[in-house]
Amino acid sequence: MASSERKPYKRKADSRQEIIQAAAICFMRHGLEKATMEDVARELNATKGRVYHHFRSKNEIYFAVYRQAMQFCFDAVQPILAQALPADESLLRMATAHGHVMMDTLPYQRSIRLGVDVYLRGSTTEAEREVLTELIARRNEYEGLYRAVMRQGNADGTLSVPDEALAGRALMGALNSLVDWYRVRPDQDQVERSRIAQVLARTVINGLRA
C-alpha cells in the first residue's frame, strides 16, 4: 500500500517536469514575450487545464525553467569541485562541463538568456520581483564557484587573475554566449559537442593561466 500511495506523487512530479520542459522549448521557439500557455499545452499535446493545474501563470513556469536551468549548471560542476585538482585544471573542467550543459539543455539556457531582461523591464508584481531577485542571486552564487577557483589559482600559482570579479563576468559571458550561436544539427554527435565544449573552454581559460 505504501508503494501505491507514492505513485500519484511521482506522477505529479513527472507531469510538472514535462510542463517545464515543454515551456523551455516554447520560450526558445517563440520568444518569452510571445509564448503562451496555449503554446505550452500544444507542445505537451495536452489541455490548458493540465498546465494550469501545476502553474498559475506563464511567469511562474518561467521561474521554474530558470531554477531547473541553474540546477543543471550546479550539478555539472560540483563533482569537479569535489576533486583535489590544481585550480587551472579545475577551472578548465568546469568551463568544459558548462559548455556541455549549454548545448545539452539549450532550451532552458536560452530561456534564461532571453528572459531576465524582459522581466526586469516589464510589468511584474512585488512577489515576482522577489523571485527574480532570488534567481539572480542563485546565478551569482554559481559564478562565485568560478571566482573561488580563481582565488585558489592565484594562491597556488596556476592562474594569474588580477581582478576575479571582472574575470568571472568575462568568463561567464564567453561561455554563455554559446547559446546565442550554437545550433543543433541532426548529424551532430556527442563527439562534436565535446570538441566544441573543449575548444571554447581552452580558449577562455588559457588566458587566465599563469
TrEMBL record:
Superkingdom, natural source: Bacteria
Give the residue spans that cross the bilayer.
none
Keyword hit for Transcription regulation: yes
Keywords, alphabetical:
DNA-binding, Transcription, Transcription regulation
Indicate the segments forming the HTH tetR-type domain, all copies: 13-73
Q: Which PROSITE patterns match?
A: HTH_TETR_1, HTH_TETR_2
Which ranges of the sequence are annotated as binding DNA?
36-55
A single Gene Ontology MF term assigned here is: transcription cis-regulatory region binding
**Does the keyword section mention DNA-binding?**
yes
- Protein name, UniProt field: TetR/AcrR family transcriptional regulator
User: What organism does this protein naturally occur in?
Assistant: Antarcticimicrobium sediminis
